[in-house]
Amino acid sequence: MRLGVFMKQTLADTAYAYLLEKIYSSELKSGDKISEQTVIENLNISRTPVREAIRRMASDGLIDFYPGTFARVHTFTSKEKLDMGAVRLAIDSLAAQLAVLNGSNRDFQDLMAVAAKCQRASDEKDFMERIRLDCEFHAALSSISGNRELISIQQRLSMRSRLMQIQAYNEKGSSSCDLAGHLDIIRALMDRNVNACLAAIQSHLRHFYTGDEEATLEWNAIEPHVQMSVFPLK
């Protein structure tokens, strides 16, 4: 009984990892339908773990699942994109401030190494890797904060943010990530300058989440209200 459950979970995890790789490599693009039969044949597994993996991905916000009909890779709307930006602004601002409080110079040097890899991937036109490393940068920033709840929230956000950036790249040929912003954030962290950190976070995220005039106006309205502060700002 226990062994059967274990095997079922393992097969579902395998199917999940398979689909995740297909989505993050852009082999499956936003709006593409998921062929359960293709997954079954490629992995030589039954339909049950495949559907379990699809349900899990739907829970993660990566797939739209319509039981009894079909599943497809999620396509982000402009409203979803702006909503994500507001949440990321709040989370990254809090993470940066806690990183100032709890982080070491070694932590910030390690963060610089991630930023350098991200820039190198961009220079080499490996945009899928650049997007992955951008998400890794923000996850690492949250990790430095030392706040487990924040780290957990950032992990989920990163999964959706990665797909969102991939979608933007496939639509426009660029995900519009401000890589120089990584360096601005790190410099502020090393200087233990909270205000500079917040300004760098704002500028970095604004670059991606304000793709048109309407989005810019909405961002300008929400930006002062969602940025979390745990320090008295002067």
Which keywords apply here?
single chain; mainly alpha; two-stranded antiparallel ribbon; about 5% strand; globular; disordered N terminus
Structure characterization notes:
The chain is 74% helix and 3% strand. The chain is mostly helical and 234 residues long. Strands 1-2 form a two-stranded antiparallel sheet.
What topology does this entry show?
Blueprint: H1 2-24, H2 36-43, H3 47-59, E1 63-66, E2 70-73, H4 78-102, H5 105-123, H6 127-145, H7 148-172, H8 180-190, H9 194-209, H10 213-226
Antiparallel strand pairs: 1-2
The number of strands is 2
Please give the radius of gyration in angstroms: 19 Å
Task: Report the end-to-end length measured between terminal Cα atoms.
Answer: 61 Å
Q: Output the number of helix runs.
A: 10
| Helical content band | over 70%
Low-confidence stretches: 1-8
Cα shape: globular
Main sheet properties:
2 strands, antiparallel
Helix- and strand-based class?
Answer: mainly alpha
Major β-sheet strand ordering: 1-2
Compute the average pLDDT: 87
H/E element sequence: HHHEEHHHHHHH
Strand content bin: under 5%
